[in-house]
Design a protein that fits this description.
The chain has about 230 residues and is of the alpha+beta class. It is built from 5 helices and 13 strands. It is globular, with a radius of gyration of 29 Å. This is L,D-transpeptidase.
Length: about 230
């Protein structure tokens, strides 16, 4: 027996693949940039970020102290933010999207400030084109006779009782924008609400409800005789 040949035939063979450099197979880290605006984007940020807390925190206004909105209990979609928005409406126009429950204040360059809103339940909502004829800070509120008939508990603030005085418990909240159509009061308003949980829902008698902090912001931005479209 040829010992050398035998050793070559029975010697073990080890699999030794070409070595791969681990770093070469790893994805290159990408830097993610948040969308920069003069407001804030909730995209990529925690719901309770400092910007939101500043916007929806405790506010002293016209002798009233508005409570903080509990952001951990609010859908972040309904928080105020600047968004891209394509529309034929002129800057300064208010557009209310009843399906999505958003209010847009149209800006220039394809942008809008978007706010979450609460709307009227089925059978009580209004739609159409109108104008903001009046704006009021801490408005007085008087329910219509029809509303009092539907909700007898409102008799204490009916017209014959003098209505509801301005304040934190007033259903119109901190501000009201009065919608007119063809020179007549539609009886519908864009207004604040003490019931922050109604924003994003369809529970009211037809008006457009906003967080008090948001309706103050909108009030300050909307010009005289601003157009409003409710779709």
């Amino acid at each position: 027996m040829n010992v050398d040949v035998f050793q070559d035939e029975v010697a073990p063979v080890y699999y030794d693949p070409a070595r791969v450099q681990p770093a070469a197979t790893q994805p290159v880290p990408q830097k993610r940039e948040l969308y920069q605006t003069q407001f804030h984007q909730t995209y990529g940020l925690p719901v309770t970020n400092p910007l939101h807390k500043a916007v929806y925190g405790l506010i002293s206004d016209e002798g009233h102290t508005l409570p903080e909105i509990p952001l951990d209990r609010v859908d972040a979609r309904y928080l105020r933010q600047e968004v891209s928005y394509q529309t034929v409406e002129a800057p300064g126009t208010i557009v209310v999207d009843t399906k999505a429950r958003f209010l847009y204040l149209v800006q220039a360059n394809g942008k809008a400030i978007r706010y979450g809103v609460g709307l009227g339940r089925d059978g009580f909502a209004w739609s159409g084109r109108g104008v903001i004829e009046m704006k009021r800070k801490w408005p007085h509120w008087t329910p219509s006779n029809e509303m009092v008939e539907r909700q007898p508990d409102l008799r204490s603030v009916s017209a014959e009782r003098g209505g509801a005085v301005a304040g934190l418990n007033n259903p119109l909240g901190a501000r009201a924008l009065y919608i007119y159509q063809n020179g007549k009061d539609t009886l519908y308003r864009v207004h604040g609400t003490p019931d922050w949980q109604s924003v994003g829902k369809a529970t009211s008698s037809g008006c457009v409800r906003m967080f008090n902090q948001d309706v103050i912001d909108l009030y300050d931005r909307v010009g005289a005789k601003a157009q409003i479209v409710v779709i």
